[in-house]
Design a protein that fits this description.
Layout lengths: L1 H29 L5 H15 L6 H15 L11 H17 L1 H7 L27
Helix pairs in contact: 2-3, 2-4, 3-4
Amino acid sequence: MNDLVERRGTNRAIVAVANKNARIIWSLLAKGEEYWKNNLRGSALGTAIGALPGAGGDIAAWMSYALARRCSKTPEKFGTGHPEGVIEAGASNNAGLSGAWIPALVFGRPSCWSGNASSDRPSSSDACGRPSHA
């Protein structure tokens, strides 16, 4: 019985944290109209950085955060959870991950492809270095 009471208390704590996080997310979404420029700039930069082979959402998010800080009227608020940086870095991260599909679809090769397609000798592994079973 005590185990059930402890679990019920844990579930209530989890629900309370989830509700708090949901309120934070909804408040950021409500501020989306106010920070549409940051969202657009982060998405554009994220797509451009994500399309580069080897670069991903993390690099795009850090570069976008730095750009948001440079373009902000109040850069001293950055580092405290200021919505400008959070919104722009988040948009850039998501767009960077989506932009990573561009080289894969254009070149038709996975990102781990070595580019040594002109080799005349047969390979005992596939393009990603995994042993082939053919």
